[in-house]
Amino acid sequence: MPNTSDSIFALSSGTLPAGVAVVRMSGPKSFQALAALTADVPPPRQAMLRALRGQTGDVIDHGLVVTFPAPHSFTGEDCVELHLHGSRAVFARISQELSLLGLRLAEAGEFSRRAFENGKIDLVEVEGLADLISAETEMQRKLAVEQGFGGQSQLYMDWARRLTHARALIEAELDFVDEDDIPGSVSDRVWADVAALSAEMTRHIAAAKTGEIIRDGYKVVIAGPPNAGKSSLLNALAQRDVAIVTDIAGTTRDVLHVDLDLNGFLVRVFDTAGIRDTDDIVEREGVRRAITAIDQADLVIQLQEIDSPPQQDKLQGLPEVLNVGTKVDICGQAQRFDLCISVVTGEGLDQLRGEITARLKQHWTGFSVPSRERHISHLREATEFIKEALAGHHLDLRSESLRAAASALGRITGRVDVEQLLDVIFSQFCVGK
Ligand SMILES: Nc1nc2c(c(=O)[nH]1)N(C=O)[C@@H](CNc1ccc(C(=O)N[C@@H](CCC(=O)O)C(=O)O)cc1)CN2
Ligand SMILES: Nc1nc2c(ncn2[C@@H]2O[C@H](COP(=O)(O)OP(=O)(O)OP(=O)(O)O)[C@@H](O)[C@H]2O)c(=O)[nH]1
Ligand SMILES: [Mg+2]
Q: What is the CATH number of domain 214-361?
């Protein structure tokens, strides 16, 4: 882990040259460094225009400067922002001056890491921020905002609190069973609550598919016999010449993909080799890769030339298949397909895009979904412990399982609660009287 007592700086805005470059500093030397550059430090949280001078007294640039005294900053430390002209030479010189003043370049994610260490944001929020920055579609943005600033952390902490609460009631029954102030058998109600929580968590985990689809994209594989028009369709959807198209059967061998933005959803479309028996070693490898891609697909678009004899449905047993007839411009419509398309006239392509979005939306369960494998594995771990607790016989072991479940949840946000077990006992049962 990088040294957290260092003062750090970085270019926080995009690639230079640019209109403006935001240089962010964080740590105990930030204000000192600003004072050295500008002669005076402006009042907190107010943008002020200043000349920035080097140690030799020459003007490096003019820029807006803002100070954020600890703890009221993004990192929770003293922070300074310099909004400079977005020149590489200006940034190079400022970097040099800041190094002379005892600051070092920040490592990747180091500002967010400090925000986490200083309790400004939890791990779920850190991950949400990372997702927000890399979001490319509207739905990725919404999911990231829900995670980063929405209810996700709260939800997991509430669950952990409910478990701690249940445990408190059970511990109370264990320890103080002889005392009059403890209600008789609270157990039944506690375990009913825990069972309800477990069901809620299981539903949440089951919605993971939505999170995966939004974050990693809905995987659509174009499959079908050689020459059906698979690569032509990929090119038409991508609106550029991605894949080689020829009238020779067996043209495509590698799996190619393009990313589409359909109604704000990331859709990852794969073109594959036409599936057939062949002696060509290269093509055979292509067919093997095509089959692997089909296995991993969320949706398979099974293409077939409309005029070709109906195919044995080789794709039966797959979760979702859309049967699409191709070359409708030369063949005419046919009933046996879900829809017919032509890449020459563009017929059916909007309908196909609509159908892909419609299939995708069948998985839709809202934005309050786990979206990372890390979260899902802790959630699973927690539900396993809860199941153990529900099935157990010895009250103290069952209570211990609830503790383990709560701490698995705590690891999601990175704030394994210091338990308020006794608080709950004392507040509810007046044990301390
Ligand atoms: N110029 C600029 N724009 C930016 C950021 C930044 O650091 N600088 N951000 C960086 O990612 C994001 C905004 N996030 C921020 C989050 C918290 C604080 C902050 O200073 N929080 C204090 C005070 C809160 C308040 O005034 O209400 C705090 O939490 O105590 C600043 C930015 C996006 N835009
Ligand atoms: N008229 C017409 N021709 C098409 C259409 N779509 C594809 N073709 C033609 O059909 C031939 C095969 O197209 P490809 O896209 O290479 O077919 P493929 O399914 O990728 O074939 P393989 O990669 O060999 O499996 C090419 O000559 C295309 O120009 C269409 O909608 N209308
Ligand atoms: Mg092809």
A: 3.40.50.300
Question: Does residue 432 register a pLDDT over 70?
Answer: no
Nearest residue CA, atom 12 of ligand 1? Answer: 74
Among the bound ligands, name the one nearest to the CA of residue 230: 2
d(CA 218, CA 301): 13
- Report the distance separating Cα 35 and Cα 82, nearest Å: 12
Residue 412: which residues within 8 A CB-CB, separation 6 or more? 123, 124, 156, 374, 375, 378, 379
Question: Which ligand is located closest to the Cα atom of residue 235?
Answer: 2
Superfamily of domain 8-121: Probable tRNA modification gtpase trme; domain 1 (3.30.1360.120)
The whole-angstrom separation of Cα 384 and Cα 387 is 5
- Read off the pTM: 0.83
In this predicted structure, what is the pLDDT of residue 222? 98
126-206+376-414: CATH topology is Four Helix Bundle (Hemerythrin (Met), subunit A) (1.20.120)
Q: By three-state DSSP, how is residue 307 classified? A: coil
Query: What's the pLDDT tens digit per position in 210-226?
Result: 888 988 999 999 999 99
CA of 144 to the centre of ligand 2 (A): 39
Instruction: List the single range of 61-70, 209-218, 251-260 with lowest mean pLDDT.
Output: 209-218
Q: Whose CA is nearest to atom 14 of ligand 1?
A: 74
CB distance 111 to ligand 1 below 6 Å? no
For residues 75-102, average pLDDT: 98
Q: What is the ipTM of this complex?
A: 0.84
